[in-house]
Amino acid sequence: MVTDDVPGSKNSFRWSKRVLDVFASLVGMIFLSPLMAFVAISIRIFDGRPVLFRQERIGLHGEPFVLWKFRTMRQEAESMGPKVTVSGDSRITAIGNILRKTKMDELPQLWNVLRGEMTLVGPRPEVREYVDLYNNEQREVLRLVPGITDPASLKYFDENSLLSQQTDPMKFYIDSVMPDKIEINLDYAKRATLLSDLRLVLKTITRVFSS
């Protein structure tokens, strides 16, 4: 995690991180292409079109970009309920449930990484509705390039289950989960290195396979 406007060693870190992002996203898309094709075909057969889900998220410096995922919810799901999803959400398809548990729905974001809109390790980008609620201190997280995984993602790996236990999942997310995620990411950004990023990626992969 790093901003795009820092000098010295941090600037060197930024460029080495970008080189890693480009290399990893290219290798990942090539190596995982059979799996991604299988997922896409499965969604097309059982759930129809579209195979991919696109949504505007807020990235570096508050600039919007289009985030890509494999579709895991029914068509028009966004108009059928809240932005947050919980375990047992009726909008999630059978295949979508598997993709969410294994995090395979996030694989298309390797394209976002290759384009430079995201990085491997960085705070998960939020929708504008939530970003508009940030206070001045929390908006510092917008100086970080958003990523596929981060330390907050590991802490809240089972976020859907946590939210399902709340009487008002959206309020709990906005009041408790979101601020904690931001604090975790801002703290990590102060001491992030290429090695610590690689460790986070490996921890995430390990967590996926052990869940």
From TrEMBL:
Keywords: Membrane, Transferase, Transmembrane, Transmembrane helix. GO terms for molecular function: phosphotransferase activity, for other substituted phosphate groups. Its EC number is 2.7.8.40. It comes from the Bacteria. It holds the Pfam family Bac_transf. The chain crosses the membrane at residues 22-46. Residues 17-209 form the Bacterial sugar transferase domain. It is an enzyme of class 2 (transferase). The keyword Transmembrane applies. InterPro entries: Bact_transf (IPR003362). Belongs to the bacterial sugar transferase family. This is UDP-N-acetylgalactosamine-undecaprenyl-phosphate N-acetylgalactosaminephosphotransferase. It comes from Novipirellula herctigrandis. The lineage of its organism: Bacteria, Pseudomonadati, Planctomycetota, Planctomycetia, Pirellulales.
